[in-house]
Amino acid sequence: MFNLKVDIDVNSGFCFGVVYAIEMAEEILSEDGQLYCLGDIVHNDEEVKRLEQKGLEIITHQQLKFVRNSKVLIRAHGEPPSTYQLALENNIELIDASCPVVLKLQNRIKNSYDRKENIYIYGKHGHAEVVGLLGQTSNQAVVFQDLEELDTKTLPQTMTLFSQTTKSTDKFHEINKVLRENGIEVKTNDTICRQVSNRDNELRNFAKKFDVVVFVSGTKSSNGKVLYKVCQEQNKRTHFVSFITDVKTEWFGKNESIGVCGATSTPMWLMKDVRQHLQRL
What we know:
Elements: E1 5-8, H1 16-32, E2 35-38, H2 45-52, E3 56-59, H3 61-64, E4 71-74, H4 81-89, E5 93-96, H5 100-114, E6 119-122, H6 128-135, E7 142-144, E8 158-163, H7 169-181, E9 185-188, H8 194-207, E10 212-216, H9 222-234, E11 238-241, E12 257-262, H10 268-280
């Protein structure tokens, strides 16, 4: 027996946007027993599996084209206008669980596009949220993950800058600074969700308190990859797990303290299962 002392980070787990989407899905599933969801409702395989057992069916945008007369859930990431148009054509009832923060961002980008501004979006290429944001500009905005992708010499002299809601605030402010230093007039829209961005500092403090940190996240979660690195910077004995079966006994010593934490897409029930498993070692 290792006699491990295990604590869960109370600030980890679903952000309110994901909670809202899952609650909407569970409510409809309890009534209808079946519901389509456009893309993974959350980037966590275990939570998706739990909801699939209740009747949730994950479909792609390609599959959506062949759906008729059904209910389809839009997850927290949001969708481009083309999805809503297709729903009208196919008599699909959209259950819109888009995060309010994302919807506000979509609206601001659409207004900028209508004003014919040069729109740049700091975000991950191909990410579901970014696809929805691009759709507000008829795919005319420029998306970049890093400043190195942009040639500052050929950029327009004025631009309107937005950010994917889950990006780093520090990096976003650094991008603003560099652009302005290169003589570009930047109209900045800080659209980063503070509930997500604050996790960065919270986890830095959390990871320092323990001998070992077990970070629980799905492998598809961009947020999970970023926050895992944050923990690892503070505590080299940080380990990434997606399932209980990923936990290895050689990570621990007798009577050590263990911190369990996770991404904004990690369900609390899964972190509790991991804690229970560790306590039995």
